[in-house]
Hints:
single chain; alpha/beta; Metallo-beta-lactamase, Chain A; 5 helices
Amino acid sequence: xxxxxxxxxxxxxxxxxxxxxxxxxxxxxxxxxxxxxxxxxxxxxxxxxxxxxxxxxxxxxxxxxxxxxxxxxxxxxxxxxxxxxxxxxxxxxxxxxxxxxxxxxxxxxxxxxxxxxxxxxxxxxxxxxxxxxxxxxxxxxxxxxxxxxxxxxxxxxxxxxxxxxxxxxxxxxxxxxxxxxxxxxxxxxxxxxxxxxxxxxxxxxxxxxxxxxxxxxxxxxxxxxxxxxxxxxxxxxxxxxxxxxxxx
Length: 248
């Protein structure tokens, strides 16, 4: 078998398996898993990500209102899984979680949010779990390293998550800088990396993180008014495709 033939399944796994319908409210990106199923990502806003897979719904850090932007979660399907990284208002919204919850919804969160809610599956940095036969999760560190910023996200408190959906590996970093533990994050297909100082990364840090993780596709998110124009050209030679969506 030729090297070209060996590469074909990998390339196909990152191709869109259908185009975004004209009626979509939010920007969407669709990828194909190893078994040929579609995973669709909806760019809701900032750090709020909706994921569809095989009739299942996953919500990341659902939040109903940020500034003049709102999400009407009553108009969206109920979630099968909800993941919360930490308790800041732009990631943790009790009302949004309540609106998305149905019988059987599984909530995965860090210790602080679990304590605040009084329920949920609490995961700490380094913990892994198989949630079913198609979805697994690993909680990974997310914290600040810059002096003067350490109070925003102290080490050991918050989570990032690596989700594996039918073989497709997705890294949702949460609020973090380019921490040493990123060297242990391997084989990532899609990465969501935050890019807004003083709370998360500078553009330089985001580039450094992407070079370490080497995702096939990078979605910068949680970026507010950060100028992201340098990301794509600086990562082109690394083979990282940068897709900028409305995650201000």
